[in-house]
Amino acid sequence: MAKTTSNLNCCIATSNNKYWRKTCIDNINLAIKLHNIKRIVVLEHSNCKAYDTTYNNIRNNEKEYHISNITKCIKMLKRIYPNIIISGFYLDNIQDEKIV
Ligand SMILES: [Zn+2]
C-alpha cells in the first residue's frame, strides 16, 4: 500500500486561522507516526467554495490563487518535513496539472 497522505488544503500556508493550520500539521504528524508516510500530495481543485468564502471575486483568476497557495504550502511543508517527498496538483474539470 502506498504510504501517502493527501487532500491537504493549501490554505494552511496562507490561512489566518491558526487552528486550521495546526489541525493539518497534527494530521500529517499522525500519518507519519502511524503509517510512516514517505510522500505528501497537496491537491487543490477548481470551483472551490472555500476559496469563494476566503477570497472575493476570484472566479476569473481562481487558478492563479491555487497555484500561488500550492507553492506556498509546499515551501512551508518542505521546511517542516525535509525528508518527505511533497508534490502539488491543481485539479480542474478540463485538465489536471502538476504544479510542484
Ligand atoms: Zn474546495
Structure description:
- This protein is of the alpha/beta class and 100 residues long.
- The protein has a domain at 1-38.
- The chain is built from four helices and four strands; from the N terminus they run E-H-H-E-H-H-E-E.
- It has helices at 11-14, 18-35, 49-54, 62-80; strands spanning 4-8, 39-45, 85-91, 97-98.
- It has a four-stranded mixed sheet.
- Mean pLDDT is 82; it is low at 1-7.
- Bound molecules: zinc ion.
- Zinc ion binds at residues 45, 48-50.
Brief rundown of the structure:
The chain has helices at residues 11-14, 18-35, 49-54, 62-80; strands spanning 4-8, 39-45, 85-91, 97-98. By secondary structure, it is an alpha/beta fold. Bound molecules: zinc ion.
Give me the secondary-structure category.
Answer: alpha/beta
Main sheet attributes: strand count, strand direction, barrel closure? 4 strands, mixed
User: How many whole angstroms does the radius of gyration measure?
Assistant: 14 Å
- The helical percent reads 40-55%
Q: Which ligands, by name, code or SMILES, are bound?
A: zinc ion
Shape: globular
- Mean pLDDT, as a whole number? 82
Helix segment count? 4
* Spatial strand arrangement across the major sheet: 1-2-3-4
Intertermini distance: 23 Å
Spans of 5+ residues with little confidence (pLDDT < 50)? Answer: 1-7
Beta percentage is 15-25%
Q: How many β-strand runs? A: 4
Order of helices and strands: EHHEHHEE
